[in-house]
Specification:
Lysozyme-like, single chain, 4-stranded antiparallel β-sheet, 7 helices, Immunoglobulin-like, 6-stranded mixed β-sheet, 2 domains, 17 strands
């Protein structure tokens, strides 16, 4: 149905218009309201990992069918794949990392009714850091859901894929664990690396429990370790710079959105141990991170609640 015909139907009262839900209404122009579209989720910034599906967008049509189409604002060969882009559903599957673009929704092939910024983040897999074989008999079980995302630091100044491999070897050989304890590791450049494989059926449950928060691994949920020592007073301690903080926030938002983790469930190692009754909690993730922890929690929560 062309826009002009649709407007005539609106004027006659043949179509019932339903209000657009959510605070994201301001992001769309009057044409959205005139055509009776609801675009979900109403989010200003999308973060997704390379090779993984990102946020799914749906345009719900409340009147007769008409032409809608999802497009990238500036076409280039690096853009993520858009599935079902001539239908009301839109699913983004990133093919490359560090890509940024703008997703647009067209009505009648010529009118842009909504735009959403998209940023594809880096997620390196286990082969990128030469992970050694796991010991499957030494895993502590599966989880039905991820109750939180918990922040850690590695408590030394080392960085890079070699350090991730060193941590894995220590966890397997010294701690006698089945694999590296963390589900993800963030290097100092803000890149996120896959650690312990998270999405694997174990005991009939969809997620593999980590080994990163002694006595409270299930409550701690998904564990992300930031490489570096952020505890002042130790010989190799370092500040927690704003760039690293911003990178962690983006990675946390992407992970919490992907795994449907409650927006208020960003935790830190020390916090989880105190909450679980440990009277000798770890200093992890270090005071330099804890000093900005509340600000990170607020930022992550605010952006997730836009969705």
């Amino acid at each position: 149905m062309h826009i002009e015909t649709l407007k005539e139907s609106l004027d006659r009262g043949d179509i019932t218009i339903k209000a657009i839900a959510g605070e994201g209404e301001a992001q769309c122009n009057d044409m959205v309201r005139q055509t009776g579209l609801r675009i979900t989720p109403n989010v200003s910034q999308v973060y997704a990992f390379r090779g993984h599906e990102g946020d799914k967008f749906n345009a719900e049509v409340f009147g007769p069918a008409y032409d809608i189409e999802w497009r990238w604002k500036d076409t280039n060969p690096w853009e993520p794949t858009i599935e079902d882009y001539f239908l009301s559903k839109c699913e983004i599957t990133p093919r490359y990392s560090n890509w940024e673009g703008t997703l647009q929704l067209y009505v009648d092939k010529r009118i842009v009714v909504c735009e959403k910024a998209v940023q594809i983040l880096v997620l390196k897999d286990r082969s990128d850091w030469n992970a050694v074989a796991i010991k499957p008999e030494d895993f502590s079980g599966g989880m039905d859901e991820l109750k939180a995302l918990t922040i850690h630091h590695s408590s030394n100044s080392n960085d890079g894929p070699e350090e991730i491999l060193r941590i894995q070897r220590r966890h397997i050989n010294w701690n006698d664990w089945g694999d590296i304890g963390y589900h993800f590791v963030m290097t100092k450049d803000g890149i996120l690396w896959e650690g312990r494989t998270l999405e694997r059926d174990l005991d009939g449950k969809p997620y593999v429990k980590g080994a990163h928060t002694g006595g409270a691994n299930e409550a701690a949920g998904l564990g992300i370790c930031m490489l570096g020592n952020y505890q002042p007073g130790e010989f190799d301690s370092e500040p927690f710079p704003d760039a690293r903080k911003r990178a962690f926030i983006k990675n946390a938002i992407a992970a919490m959105a992907r795994y449907d983790i409650n927006s208020e469930a960003l935790r830190n190692h020390r916090h989880v141990q105190v909450s679980s009754g440990n009277n000798k909690p770890s200093l992890c993730p270090g005071k330099n991170v804890l000093d900005v922890y509340c600000d990170m929690v607020r930022t992550v929560r605010a952006q997730l609640e836009e969705r």
